[in-house]
Amino acid sequence: MSCIFCDVAEGRTSARIIREADDLVAFYDINAQAPVHILVIPKRHIPTINDVKADDAVLIGKMVLLAREIMEEQGYDRKGYRLVMNCNNDGGQTVYHLHLHALAGRWMSWPPG
Amino acid sequence: MSCIFCDVAEGRTSARIIREADDLVAFYDINAQAPVHILVIPKRHIPTINDVKADDAVLIGKMVLLAREIMEEQGYDRKGYRLVMNCNNDGGQTVYHLHLHALAGRWMSWPPG
To answer: What is the ipTM of this complex?
Structure first.
């Protein structure tokens, strides 16, 4: 089965990549829901957050910290931003390769969906 | 300055605590936005995700993994759930002690706020 985010991670499809780390890639969401909407993915194919092992705590933390770093670089740290991770259908997950959303540039309302 | 989530972490205020780990506490959000709405906080006072250091990647990962574990225990892993972390005003942060929201029990719409 092909996976669109594996294709992004491995450079087989075009994406507006912001940063590439050893085990992570950050790029712009093509269906932006805010003036700035980025995604951070692990290069390794992990379908959902349910599939993460206890050993992966550092990987997950690094995903959040990379999103935070990009928000800061782009000048959204003071104003703020929202980080979101969807799991399965009720969570609104549409691509089954783990990804963290970071949304900025507008006020994010509550509830979060 | 008093902090309501430090009070929860240190048992100075009542909260419906679900789990306590060495460095984390999980409890129910009193302003639930879904049938199940939990919060995971570090016991240590960290105002926002901007204040987290690179060394804290494991701590952040553990927050996500604890939320995941509770969602699984409560039977929401298959149906799904949404994890959210708000930073500063645009992100909708209201309590300035780092916290991760986990929402389940209903379909979460898009955009996430």
So the answer is: 0.98
